[in-house]
Amino acid sequence: LFGWDVDAVIAKQYFSSKEEATNAKVTLMNEYGKSGLNERFCSLVQGTTTTIGSASRGMQKACKSLGMACTLGGPIGSIDCNIGGNPKCCSEAAACIRYVPTRTGDFQVSALSSVDLVSVNGQRIAPEMGSFPLFRDDIIVVGPRVFLFLLPGNNDSL
C-alpha cells in the first residue's frame, strides 16, 4: 500500500551533482527504508486524546541534554506522537486523535493548526472543519508523515 522505490524517486529528480543525488538517496533510505514502507514509525493511542506533531529543535535538544530519548512515534513534551523529520515540517500540535464513541465510530481526528498539512484519505482537513470519524485502514497525513490507522484485532492490511 505505501511502498515505493527510492531509486525510482531519485531518478525522477534533478540534482546538481552525483553527490547531491547520493545524499538525497541516503537521507530517504534512512528515513523511510529501501522499500519506502516507513516501518520504523509506529505509535499507540493510549488515552482519550493523542496530540500529533513534530518536536521543535529546542525540545529535541532539551531531551538529549537530559538523556531522554526523542523516539519517532513516541511522546516528547506535550506531544503524544512525535512524527519526527525536520522540526519545521509541522507544529508541535498539528493534529489530534480522540476516543469519542459515537454512532459513526469510536475515534475522531481533527487538525489543530491551519498552517499544517493534515489529511484523511486524501482530503485535507482544517481546524474550522471540526472532527472526522476514523476507521480501520484510514490513511492519515500529518506534515510529511503518512500512516495507516489500525485498530486492535485482525489487521490484514499489514
Structure description:
With 158 residues, this protein is an alpha+beta fold. Helices cover 19% and strands 22% of the residues. It is built from three helices and nine strands, in the order ααβαββββββββ. Strands 2-1-3-4-7 form a five-stranded mixed sheet, with no helix packed on it. Strands 6-5-8-9 form a four-stranded antiparallel sheet, with no helix packed on it. The model has no long low-confidence stretch (mean pLDDT 80).
What is the average of the pLDDT values? 80
Distance between the termini: 9 Å
Uncertain segments = none
The counted number of beta strands is 9
Helix count equals: 3
What string gives the helices and strands in order?
HHEHEEEEEEEE
Radius of gyration: 17 Å
Largest sheet: 5 strands, mixed
Which properties best describe this structure?
158 residues; alpha+beta; five-stranded mixed beta sheet; four-stranded antiparallel beta sheet; 3 helices; 9 strands; 22% strand
Question: What's a concise summary of this model?
Answer:
With 158 residues, the protein is of the alpha+beta class.
Layout of secondary structure:
Elements: H1 6-11, H2 18-32, E1 49-53, H3 57-65, E2 81-82, E3 95-99, E4 107-111, E5 118-120, E6 123-124, E7 132-134, E8 138-142, E9 145-149
Parallel strand pairs: 1-2
Antiparallel strand pairs: 1-3, 3-4, 4-7, 5-6, 5-8, 8-9
